[in-house]
């Protein structure tokens, strides 16, 4: 595994662009939090805003202030969608993370699993997997628990993991990504975002990705050479 490749961002790929967008969004929100709390003399909260957009335990959280005080709906809040039609939360919430650890793990998983999938199926199909899996996971979240507040790219990442796992096994009888999928599942079961993991979104992304994996695999031929060429 070449860690220099993993830590680099290739903006010529869809995966690279998705990672860059997530990082930029985090930085913008973190800086917004720092400025906001400094203006109100809350210097401790300003410092923690660099690392926690949703602060665990007591204290203010810039994401809640933006969403509920400034009335800029960017998190996934089921009642917002059901009562007010804020459907864009299904998408915006996929690019927002609660803290550095939450962002870092999701971007690592997106890099390791997303780039090989993009090489196999192409840019457009990769984007479809990520957005559709994440959206389906969020829709299921809203329908099953409309009072939940959710955020993060894990639904889309579970979709990518399932898609490449099915394609690998059907075309190459290879199980590397199944092992990554298990690792993603185990780590995503931890409260990385500071609250209860959104298992419903993970499940929705997983089922969507598995379905797309079966569809894509049936259309692909075994002309890719050595499967190791697609991994780090």
Task: Name the features.
66% helix, two-stranded antiparallel sheet, mainly alpha, 232 residues, 2 strands, globular
In short, what is this structure?
This protein is mainly α. The chain contains eleven helices and two strands; from the N terminus they run H-H-H-H-E-H-H-H-H-E-H-H-H. A two-stranded antiparallel sheet has the order 1-2.
Description:
This protein is mainly alpha-helical. It is 66% helix and 2% strand. Strands 1-2 form a two-stranded antiparallel sheet. Helix 7 (100-121) packs across helix 8 (123-144), helix 7 runs parallel beside helix 9 and helix 8 (123-144) packs antiparallel against helix 11.
What is the overall pLDDT average? 87
**Strand arrangement, largest sheet?**
1-2
The SS-based structural class is mainly alpha
Run of helices and strands: HHHHEHHHHEHHH
Q: Quickly count the helices.
A: 11
The helicity comes to 55-70%
Outline the biggest β-sheet.
2 strands, antiparallel
SSE diagram, text form:
Blueprint (H helix, E strand, L loop, with lengths): L2 H5 L6 H26 L3 H6 L13 H8 L6 E2 H7 L4 H4 L7 H22 L1 H22 L4 E2 L3 H19 L3 H13 L10 H21 L13
Helix pairs in contact: 2-7, 7-8, 7-9, 8-9, 8-11, 9-10, 9-11
């Amino acid at each position: 595994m070449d860690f220099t490749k993993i830590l680099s961002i290739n903006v010529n790929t869809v995966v690279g662009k998705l990672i860059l967008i997530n990082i930029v969004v985090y930085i913008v929100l973190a800086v917004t939090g720092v400025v906001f709390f400094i203006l109100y003399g809350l210097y401790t909260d300003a410092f923690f805003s660099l690392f926690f957009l949703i602060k665990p335990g007591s204290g203010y959280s810039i994401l809640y202030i933006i969403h509920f005080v400034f009335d800029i709906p960017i998190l996934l809040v089921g009642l917002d969608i059901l009562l007010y039609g804020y459907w864009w939360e299904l998408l915006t919430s996929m690019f927002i993370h609660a803290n550095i650890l939450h962002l870092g793990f999701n971007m690592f998983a997106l890099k390791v699993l997303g780039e090989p999938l993009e090489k196999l199926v192409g840019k457009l199909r990769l984007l479809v997997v990520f957005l559709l899996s994440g959206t389906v996971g969020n829709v299921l979240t809203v329908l099953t628990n409309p009072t939940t507040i959710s955020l993060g790219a894990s639904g889309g990442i579970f979709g990518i993991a399932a898609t490449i796992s099915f394609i690998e096994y059907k075309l190459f009888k290879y199980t590397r990504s199944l092992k990554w999928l298990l690792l993603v599942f185990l780590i995503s079961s931890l409260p990385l975002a500071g609250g209860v993991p959104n298992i419903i979104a993970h499940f929705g992304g997983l089922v969507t990705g598995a379905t797309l994996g079966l569809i894509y695999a049936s259309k692909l031929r075994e002309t890719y050479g050595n499967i190791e060429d697609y991994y780090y």
